[in-house]
Design goal:
two-stranded antiparallel ribbon, alpha+beta, single chain
Length: 159
Amino acid sequence: MQNDLNIENDVLDGIDRQLVQLLMANARTTAADLARQVGMSAPSVADRLRRLEESGVVRGYTLDVDPAALGYTLTAIVRIRPLPGQLHKVEKLIAGIGEFVECDKVTGDDCFVARLLLKSIAQLDGVLDRITEYAETNTAIVKSSPVRRRLPPLQASRV
């Protein structure tokens, strides 16, 4: 029996993969336009989208804003190692500083790897000063991003 999401061995079927890829390219694409592109009826596509949402495959539809258009011309990657006993304090501080736009808790010597968006290099010290009482940091300025955030491969697995 096929489950509600048309998944075999935890891999999306071809239509679901197409829908996810089309929505990644343009999340504002209507169900009618998606239906035309995948050769299905709009109600069938709407049903598939609902199931993709309910299953958690599609978590939301987002807006892609260019930080440079808002004046954020500098990106920095910061490795953060909290001082003993300061892990939770540092985590809360990072969460409360708006310039930290991403942060991952990681294994290894550092506990966090975070991405900062800044309007200038002069702003960097002010942001980092807010956490250096509680953690050691190591910062790298991003020169370019050859691979932007993207989906993992969606093709069917070959077993």
